[in-house]
Amino acid sequence: xxxxxDSIYNxxxxxxxxxxxxVRRAVAKGRALEDRATRSGLALTTIAQNIxxxxxxxxxxxxxxxxxxxxxHTPVGVNQIEMKKDIHNAIIRATKNGKLRPNSVDSLTGExxxxxxxxxxxxxxxxxxxEEGIDVRLILKGGGCENKNIQYSLPAELEGLGKAGRDLDxxxxxxxxxxxxxxxxxxxxxxIGVGIGGxxxxxxxxxxxxxxxxxEDVNPTQDLGKLEDYxxxxxxxxxxxxxxxGGEVTxxxxxxxxxxxxxxxFFVSVAYNCWAFRRQGILVHPATGDIKEWLYExxxxxxxxxxxxxxxxxxxxxxxxxxxxxxxxxxxxTIPAAPALLSDTGEAASDAVVPxxxxxxxxxxxxxGTPGGSREIRLTTPISEEDIRSLRVGxxxxxxxxxxxxxxxxxxxxxxxxxxxxxxxxxxxxxGPVMLKDDxxxxxxxxxxxxxxxxEPYQGDIIKKFGIRAVIGKGGMGPKTxxxxxxxxxxxxxAIGGAAQYYAExxxxxxxxDFMEFGIPEAMWHLQVDGFAAIVTMDAHGNSLHAxxxxxxxxxxxQFREPVFK
Length: 566
Ligand SMILES: O=C(O)C[C@H](O)C(=O)O
Ligand code: SF4
Fold this sequence. Notes:
fumarase, 5-stranded mixed beta barrel, 14 helices, 22 strands, binds (2S)-2-hydroxybutanedioic acid, binds iron/sulfur cluster, lyase, EC 4.2.1.2, fumarate hydratase activity, iron-sulfur
């Protein structure tokens, strides 16, 4: 087994950087269904570009490389202790090389182990089987979508859906509700694995195991196959869309498994996986440790383009030398009108589409709180209150200058400490990047946004205390932050979750870092950016796209109240 460590290293690199073929096809299918001239359509374009960039640069698709979870089947007689050691060494190497972010944090002290090893990390499940080879499967599931997992105990009363009983129809309601409650926060459009039965632990395990099924397989249990089809058809009717921007495509895959339960318990467990659905597997030679076979189709050569003929799109862009936006907007594209659900009339205001590339392009009509058009606005930090107050939900902001990363540890710290730098007029980026250091200093390897709602208890106070003008993240924030944005003059900017290569390209220099003791993801990185594009989804005028989409999808959820599976 002298090559086993190398094989595992290759498996980790492939899983982290090259989205598999079946997942790519699902993304392409989603793109074909979504109108490209909407925010969700643009977000999917960014996601597609990011997938290509990660493969090309052999860099993480998303900066959150998740909890490495291995499921391994071995023939009888294979030394599992040795295998574990090799896996640990491969993980250390992948972390050193920037293929995995150091993600193992001591739950009591907050200390990051730095090498992805620690109590409970990585997760390795061994099972014996009577085959000859060793089957190793790996999933890298990030923390944001893990937070959107949910477990129901039937019977239950579900918001919008009423009673969910201990039967197939009750299960149907739980699954629809699970998609609703995730909104865009798990980086929709997502994939769900569902476990019916078991106890609280094995139910979740079963749900996660479903994520190892191929996206295009057919459920061997006919009833569950029907339920999967039903969910795929109807979950998209919730209108949540990519990143929760509103749209046609919310779910890209649904796999359901079943096991026995105790008479008193009836759990429906849902494992929510973001679009960055990173799982691969290898069949390993038990004598040499070499890879005999890859278990999932490689993504290489599989297009994520969707139906190009039906919907022509502008050329994909990276960062142009003249500082063109490297975020959401393709050069010489048009900014789309707001999705229908936000317009007063219920229709997309297509005549309000305005060209990009001006410094500030005025909208046809801004100021109603239900934007009928969008503008592209270039801002350089520090930002004035006046500039911020002129922004509206739907505007695309293109930032240049310095921004500061800050997430859970920093927000907690800033509540009762000073900041190490002047944050007046500043931009805070909810981001825990993958960073590597060489003789020239630190380099950003991946840097997409993290879920902002975790900072809801702190954000409003911190904005006011330090004079922050913009917060960038994903998934939106709540009423406390919205109130502070209005009182102080601030905006929330939504970047595209998981587009870690895309945003890394906008970061031109690492100016400095504070709080390295928090660990790499939680440190405060001072980053020089150019052309960093994000969409205003909460403004200083009390408008929140997230609140609107949630309300709208809650109303849509209610249409699924009546029994379907009798
Ligand atoms: O930890 C991160 O970088 C992101 C996380 O996966 C999230 O979705 O919030
Ligand atoms: S940031 Fe989004 S894409 Fe990345 S792991 Fe978290 S949920 Fe997944």
